[in-house]
Amino acid sequence: MSIKLGICPIGWTNDDLPELGSENTFQQAISEMALAGFTGTEIGNKYPKEPAELKSYLEPRGLSIASAWFSAFVIADFEATKRDFIRHRDFLHAMGSKVIVVSEQTHSIQGQERSIYDEKPIFTEAEWEQLTRGLEELGELAQEKDMAIVYHHHMGTGVQTTEEIERLMENTDPAKVSLLFDSGHLVFSGEDPLYIFNKYADRIKHIHLKDIRQERMEDVRAQHKSFLTGVKEGVFTVPGDGMIDFKPIWEAIRSSGYAGWMMVEAEQDPAKANPFIYAKKARVYIKAVTGL
């Protein structure tokens, strides 16, 4: 089975909240990823920006680059997004990645101190048209390098809910736009992750595994807190440490014939959740559930 396991650096150092894990170095993060039993990582802001230098750190540790986040502003400024995307694509291609994580950030409140449940943006009809056509063009650019874009549905953005994911999928060419499946964001939003996976299994080309602490999630909703406040207070955790039952999710993944990366991505405050200990906890749980 061609499934590979990786872990994202956001548990060690948080790009959106630089104060979380500012003391943790790039070398520490990748060494602990390897020690915990993972073979892949995504790219954080402390990673070297030159492919040869980055490879010189990763290869001795048996690590590969699975992908990296790209903040798209297809609706707000497509031409600037296109230029930035090409540079991002070329870097990931040089690192051997096959997928590019894309999330539309026009109107996003995920980085703002606004209620994540009450103030989520809603795209207009015209904005939906801009988004779907623009994503298809980015998909074509990815194909030039034999790569694919995987769209990351995300809390606090215009593509978060089941209805929004369905609209995106139904109005884009499957040959040009694929989907990233993120268990944590779906549950946080109140969606059914199994429904999404099963409906779009043939378009899912990248997976983020994160768990949810139910009491923290309920507090975020009840107290009208922001996404980043929720992160700091521990809404997310690694698989096996929260409310999500990953056994049926794994059965759906296995049955689908999925091939690609499954990435543990659980942004937490490393001062409260030691990233190495939680990485090992995730690896043990994944082994128990999947046998991988």
From TrEMBL:
MF term (GO), any: manganese ion binding
To which pathway does this protein belong? Answer: Polyol metabolism; myo-inositol degradation into acetyl-CoA; acetyl-CoA from myo-inositol: step 2/7
InterPro entries attached here? IolE, IolE/MocC, IolE/XylAMocC-like, Xyl_isomerase-like_sf, Xyl_isomerase-like_TIM-brl
Q: Which GO terms describe its biological process?
A: inositol catabolic process
Tell me the cofactors it needs.
Answer: Co(2+); Mn(2+); glutathione
* Enzyme Commission identifier(s): 4.2.1.44
Q: Which reaction does it catalyse?
A: scyllo-inosose = 3D-3,5/4-trihydroxycyclohexane-1,2-dione + H2O
UniProt keyword annotations, A-Z: Cobalt, Lyase, Manganese
Question: Which Pfam families is this protein grouped with?
Answer: AP_endonuc_2
Superkingdom of source: Bacteria
Q: What class of enzyme is it?
A: lyase
Q: Where is the Xylose isomerase-like TIM barrel domain?
A: 33-280
What the record says about family reads:
Belongs to the IolE/MocC family.
Q: What is the protein name for this chain?
A: Inosose dehydratase
Q: What is the species of this protein?
A: Lactococcus termiticola
Species classification: Bacteria, Bacillati, Bacillota, Bacilli, Lactobacillales
